[in-house]
Design goal:
This protein is of the alpha/beta class. It has two domains: 3-223, Aldolase class I (TIM Barrel), CATH 3.20.20; 240-556, UDP-N-acetylmuramoyl-L-alanine:D-glutamate ligase (3-Layer(aba) Sandwich). It is built from 21 helices and 17 strands. Helix 6 links the parallel strand 6 (130-133) and strand 7 (170-174). Helix 1 (26-36) runs parallel beside helix 2, helix 6 runs parallel beside helix 7 (182-189) and helix 13 runs parallel beside helix 21 (529-542). Bound molecules: ligand 3NM and magnesium ion (MG). Residues 74-75, 91, 94 line the site of magnesium ion (MG).
């Protein structure tokens, strides 16, 4: 087999333990997985005696050869030699690369496990054919792993090694990868100068009752880019305004489902008395968010219980997570829902409500200054990190303080303290150019659209950054307008087509929402925030986007 022609895109690593293989036959599982589209197989068995290892490896090799797929043996160079298979995978505690290469020769495929820059650099130097970088996420499959590095950790290693070395061997990553996160991992772990070739997977295939189907699903996901953010070719602001009317009508025609998870605190943790006010507010917000969703023409579903998410995700809508509660149970709840929507390849909008400070009653998105300026608590930081690493978000939306927190959390390594970007968390202190750069950088790192609301909103997909100066002060004087903007955004993205710019949908949703606020506030019968709310719903529902062109205040940020 010509080792320059093999594909690393879906790399199956076997496991023979009862916890994963169960009573299934390893050869049958591997053959099913090959039928499903696995492109490389590593026989990994840490327990069996040499005799059985060789016997099983021979059987596996006979199978993999039928599919023109290479078979590698974990650790045991002697077994690979005895079987005559295509190569070995060696860990940091196994035989050294140089010796393995001497024994197996130049045509063998030799892969090396690397968990940090040093290990990766020395494997590249030593002539490894590929690197297996991990551990990405914690996994029950291998309990003795040293560090969970997440997709960002993989990317950091590759970036650092790429600076030092000319050679770029193939690279896969491993640990806790399955259908629910594979696209996000590939997207976020790949630096542009050295993208991952694929992923290595154990339990998501070996532990499946239908390994062929599992492999097939994974192969499809690996081959399709994650929620591609097609860049919009923008030359001037009319590129954003000319489609408003069409996009608005499409939402009304498609009536996409907007699944709102607004944390109802009482479901998830016992409430101290002082929280009652927040609970009440969240219920009011649900009602308001549902009405806004209806007014813009979409279909609201208010369900905070993630058990339903898998079924709801199949209905072709979008999920909005208003993540204000940070108990472990709440986080698990969000996580399960994000996994369901990611697996269904449907959009998710994350609104890290109150992540910059404990949630207060002033959860409106514009104009309102937080009542607390304490900054995020340690619990909130770690909760945000969990949320960010548990799924792929199509849009991350927050006010300046929240987006700053997200950006700081993103820059954290699993072990180290947050790296300051030279900006501080007290909101209001940043210059427009710093804000524009902040949203742009975060959009690039997260591979999503970032919306930072404020008197001026900053919206970026990493390529184009848009400033919006619409909206009205009343939006900051009634509760729930932040959450409802998330719903409006979700409605527009959910009704967009594959291949369209997400940024365009987001901007259209924001313009619909914010110009409706301006129209409502200008009505004669509107005296203040109370009379504003019904007028706002009316304006959302009746707005003729052709007629708002004159109101639109959009700028394209030029660096
Ligand atoms: N090596 P699963 S993690 C075999 O970090 C292996 O080097 C790892 O299993 C490493 O796909 C791992 O079931 C197990 O999470 C991965
Ligand atoms: Mg090993």
């Amino acid at each position: 087999m010509d080792k320059t022609k093999v594909s690393y895109s879906l790399y199956l690593v076997t496991d023979s333990t009862p916890a994963i293989l169960g009573d299934k036959d390893i050869c049958h599982v591997v053959e099913e997985a090959l039928k499903g589209g696995v492109t490389m197989v590593q026989y990994r068995d840490k327990q069996s005696d040499t005799g059985l290892l060789i016997k099983t490896a021979k059987k596996l090799h006979a199978i993999t050869k039928k599919y023109y797929v290479p078979l590698l043996v974990n650790d045991r160079v002697d077994v690979a030699l005895a079987v005559g298979c295509e190569g070995v995978h060696i860990g940091q505690d196994d035989m050294d690369l140089e010796t393995a290469r001497k024994l197996l020769g130049p045509n063998a495929i030799i892969g090396v496990t690397a968990g940090n820059v040093l290990e990766a650099a020395s494997a590249v130097e030593g002539g490894a054919d590929y690197l297996g970088i991990g551990t990405v996420y914690s996994t029950a499959t291998k309990r003795d792993t040293k560090h969970m590095i997440g997709p960002a950790g993989v990317r950091n290693i590759l970036e650092a090694v790429a600076v030092k070395m000319d050679k770029k061997p193939h690279v896969v990553c491993i640990g806790g990868i399955g259908a629910h996160n594979v696209q996000r991992v590939l997207l976020k772990a790949s630096p542009p100068q050295w993208p991952l070739d694929g992923v290595a997977i154990v339990s998501a295939i070996m532990g499946s009752q239908d390994p062929q189907q599992a492999a097939k699903e994974l192969a499809t996901l690996v081959a399709t880019p994650a929620f591609p953010l097609y860049a919009l070719e923008v030359t001037d602001k009319s590129d954003f305004t000319k489609n408003l009317s069409r996009l608005r009508k499409r939402v009304a025609e498609k009536k996409p489902i907007c699944h709102n998870m607004t944390n109802l605190v009482s479901n998830l943790c016992p409430l101290p008395p002082s929280f009652t006010v927040i609970l009440t507010i969240r219920q009011v917000v649900q009602n308001f968010a549902a009405n806004v969703t209806l007014s813009i023409g979409a279909s609201p579903i208010m369900s905070s219980y993630s058990g339903e998410a898998a079924d709801l995700a199949k209905l072709g809508g979008a999920l909005v997570i208003n993540a204000g509660t940070v108990t472990p149970a709440a986080l698990e709840n969000y996580e399960e829902a994000v996994h369901a929507y990611n697996a269904a390849r449907r959009p998710v909008v994350l609104d890290p409500v109150g992540f910059a400070s404990p949630p207060d009653i002033n959860i409106s998105y514009k104009y309102a200054k937080s009542l607390h300026s304490a900054g995020a608590t340690a619990i909130r930081r770690s909760a945000l990190r969990t949320l960010l690493s548990s799924g792929y978000y199509t849009v991350i939306k927050g006010n300046e303080a929240e987006i700053l927190e997200v950006s700081k959390v993103h820059n954290m390594n699993s072990s180290s303290q947050p790296q300051q970007r030279g900006v501080d968390s007290s909101s209001g202190g940043l210059q427009p150019s710093e804000l524009a750069l902040l949203v742009k950088e975060l959009a690039i790192k997260e591979g999503c659209v970032v919306v930072m609301t404020g008197v001026t909103d900053y919206v970026s997909d990493g390529k184009t950054t848009i400033l919006i100066e619409n909206g009205h002060e009343y939006l900051g004087r009634v509760t729930g307008t932040g959450c409802t903007l998330g719903t409006a955004i979700a409605a527009y993205i959910a009704s967009s087509e594959e291949g369209e710019s997400v940024l365009q949908s987001v901007v259209a949703a924001m313009l619909h929402f914010e110009t409706a606020a301006e129209i409502a506030a200008s009505q004669l019968q509107v005296y203040g925030p109370g009379t504003f709310v019904p007028a706002f719903l009316d304006a959302l529902a009746s707005i003729h986007t052709d007629g708002i062109q004159g109101l639109v205040k959009v700028k394209i940020w030029e660096e």
